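Troubleshooting: if your tokenizer reports a length mismatch, compare against these two reference records.
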Amino acid sequence: MKKSLQDKRNRFKMLEAAPSITASGPSGSGKSLMLMMMQPAFVNRLFSGNVGDNQTTLIRTRLMLDATMNDNEILVRVKIKPLDYVLILTHVSDVILETIYEARDDLEEFTVPEDTEHSLLNPRDQAYHFADYVGKCKAGCPTKDELHDLLAKLIDALIPNLRDAVREKEKETKTAYPKPKKKEIYEMVIQERLTNFDLAAPMNNVVDWFERLHSFIQNEIMENCEWLYDDQIYAVIDGIIDDNKNATTSHEMIENPIEALIRSTYDKKSAYSLVLDELAYCVRPSAAFLSSFEANFHQEASLGKVLRLNILDTPGLTQTGESLDVMQDTMQRNLGLKTDAFLFLCGADARKTVYDNFKVLLNQKEIKEKMNGLPVKILRTRADFRVYSRMKEICMEAEGDLSLLKENAVKYAKKAFDELVKENEEDSKEWTHILGINTQLELISLDSVQLESLVGNVMKEMKLTNKFLYDALFDIVRQVNESHMPDSKGLRYLQVKDIAKPALTIKMNTDVEVMLNLFGETMVALNARDSQNNYFQYESKRKTYHGRSVYTHKRKLEYGSGHETRAVIYENFVLHLRSMVQKWLSVFFTNRALNLQISFDNIADSESKRQAEKEAADVLMEVFLKHLPQIYFRMAKWFTYEGMRTEVEDIYKTEWAADPAFRKHMRIIMTKFSNREYWSRGLEYQIKLELNQLLNRMYFFE
């Protein structure tokens, strides 16, 4: 039976109050495979394209487990994102430069090569892959030929007298040290020409092509989905997967829309990353995971506590490359998301360079800052593969013959496992030093069929069965619960009257309004003190800013990271806006009490309610202080990007050249940061959001 839209909203509201764990690690470390061990078999079939070597998508996947879901029922929610103009402009600029530079000696008789549009649709950095989708020539979809013609017109508009301009630029940079390369000179001239009004129309036509592709894909997705709310950010579809493995919804449809959506999202050549930011799906946990929950939370389960849990599977750190820079960018993006805990996975058989880079990343100050105060657990997955590989080595050393492996499998397995445990103990000491907290790495098996066929029950002795993965996950869940529910209040249950409304809410009073006004004045004063020696100095610098540097800064700002450049012929900048604002917040809130009132109007009368009314304000402040580092981080991220998102995105949507866009961006920040209302109303929004979320997790609600 089809669920009503309100039923779906209620379901997600309950799930969003459940613990949320972000899983991150190198590609192939088992993040997606881990999800398969927690969910029903029919779901594993649907998501088989998102596991192992098949995985190429950069779309986040969120598993939302809910024990109140029916068997074979699935509810899918996709997060729609607007067109990423910075992403498109970055690659358009790259293609223009490469195309012109390769033909620099024959520009007078130049024609754009036939495959130029392919390098734009499938860039070398694997940021997206649209070529196959566009090549299917679906009715109404923008075509490759059309894009080729638009690129040709843009490039034709750029090349008149280009070599003369390049020679002039070479004279200007003659004294630069080190001397700029020829390609860099071409790039500078092209970037300057993109600021020319005469080029606005051909550039706009190229961007318009991608806007139409974005609309086409979004409309395709929405054919079988409905908007969850009027803001048109989340779209949902629900259904039942029947016994003969055909996905059906309550609609009378020939196709299987749920399966089609999932397959299209995770296809190796999917273009859905242009439109989708995240795909979340809600299902009932597997029987084994439910059983483990009842064993780990026996008291809570006996009192009626329902298993609800969110696991966010993020893109692999090495999915687009194994260099430290690539891994760092992906890690920063993954850690910039709101979460309750971090689960890091790295294969016990991972290449040494990948594992070493993984350690370097988690030892970086900015990465640690994003993890501050949250539970962290590190799993060395694929321990079974490591044991099996070492078993063969030991057998060959002892017998000189791998055919004897099965006969002595248990003996060799125990020896191999003991070696791995000893190595793991040394690794744990190093990780304790890196993270600054006592860290015990957990050895986990995610696919033990091959090893288990040789050693049988010895797998339990080595703690390589599914049970130990489940125990590790529930240990994190317990830490998350304890951080939101102080021990003395942790098992208090409250009955919600109307599930469509928040269980508890913050009521603002006059004391809070006074604080908000003071906050606005303080932030404006801090900005006046610091801006000229920080971000605003870069608004009036003489040299040009490099396009990729500008776009990288803007992208990193979205997830709360800073950026520094080390250019030679271009202007440099050092910007850590979120960090700067986070320090301002700390200055203001240190030793400052929040006097708040809490509404229990949506809670049914009971002894638990009466006790909660007495303690809630004090407990909330206790929990608030525990989470203060993460709250500061999210608030600072909001003030430096999300609060001015519309104005910032409009700049990069309409300003094709990076340098003037960057300067306008700095001016927008100055305007916002000089406005008391921006700070006071922004803080009001953030306080309500953060405290209401904490409130609705301080107790168990049903």
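Reference record two:
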Amino acid sequence: MRLGVLGPLEVWTADGRLVRVRETRIRTLLTALLVRRGQVVSVDRLIDDLWGDAPPAGDVRTLRSKVSLLRRTLEDAEPGGRDLVVSRPPGYLLRVDDDAVDAGRFEGLLARARKLAADPRAKAGLLTEALALWRGPSAFADFADEPFVRAEARRLEEQRLVALEELAEARLELGEHGPLAGELGELVAAHPLHEGLRSVHVRALYRSGRQDAALASLGELRDRLRDDLGLDPGRELTELHQAIVRQDAALSPGRAPARRPRGNLPAPFTDLIGRTEEVRRIGELLQSERLVTLTGIGGVGKTRLALEVAARRAEDLPEGAWLVELSAARTGIDVQEAVAAVLELRDDVHAPARSLADRLTDAVAGRHMLLVLDNCEHVVEPVAELAARLLRAAPDLRVLATSQEPLTVTGEHAWPIPPLDLPEPGAGRPERRTPRGHHHPPAETRRRHRTGHRTGPRRRGRGRAPARDRHRRRTHALTSAAGWTDGHRSRIAGSCQWSALSCPPWSSLIRCSTP
């Protein structure tokens, strides 16, 4: 169950359904527990929060009934919900993880963003995600006048302003002074004495060629500080004013940090055959869905199809598409190390010790990219866990996975990949006729049968060896294609056996030649 306080009080089930907490006293009780989440709130304090100077007769008994109603409301919404409210002397405790409350997630994202000072793009992504959790300018908005809420609401709102300032600084470092000059005007007007926001706005104005507006903004702040507080601007703003007057070169926009390479997708040897419509539809799906898994039997062409989709989507992504090959992975650590290698994540001996999963989460935060996780079927659980974690941390991340079974992650869209259909008998130019009068499929389709790509060099001649020996040689030809790993070979060999068992009797006479 998730709870929201960054705006009006809201409660949602794990699957996102809104829970109606209708009675005012029950909402007040839940708010009082949320303000002090993780702490035991005494009975006396709760009575004061709910009724102030006019408690009811039998106030302790009445409070117990309200707690019982709150537990029932949460349990009716989601099994186990009543266990969130724990009786613990001398009162009650709301037992929820920080991630279950939007304020906790907000503070967690801020802490992570502040560790990324050297990567303004990633930092901006985390700060944007954190600020998106706010559903209004005020925390606990429907209880803003209650004395027990004011201090915590004010603290969260100050953190929001600091986050806005830090986001503006990161965007300024990325060279976004033009949009910032306009966007920050309204925010500075709402908080005219906030020197940090004013400083970023003034620098954005100056870098946009609006020196007069920058100096006027600093003059306005100076007058307000003197009139309202009897103070002068701080040293930083005084030095900024002097730098603008002398047009200090240090104020000029620097070069934005260079982007990483746009991907590592291998160049295909041949064109993809028979999957044009699927490429288009899966590409469109990735625009709206964040996790798409291509499922199907081994050798059906999932990898080739995924690479084609990724190559076309990469042009629209600022940081491209990245392929992570997982055929050699056997454990969760193997999966994490494979992703870390692709993202060129290196150990920092000077940084505090952190898990590889945490470092991967930071590495993708704020990046607008597509991650292709290939051959996940033998490590489904660790891939699912890592994918869910990365997607939570990076709102602009997309994941395209290939597996023989779905990852079963919340929000996943599984897309089954069937084998390519054989053409009707007689379609195209028949190569030769079977004893029963059926025509074989055209050579071009036959060479790409079921996998959608070329599988090896053409055999020009055909001996009169027994069928079993011919099958062995042809399987070797299929699995000896340039650049294929042992994992590819074993999957293709298994797929050929599956295909032979599933084909109709007449097709067993088709010559399994390769181009």
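Descriptive notes for reference record two:
- The CA atoms of residues 328 and 487 lie 8 Å apart.
- The chain has four domains: 1-169, 175-258, 276-416, 419-515.
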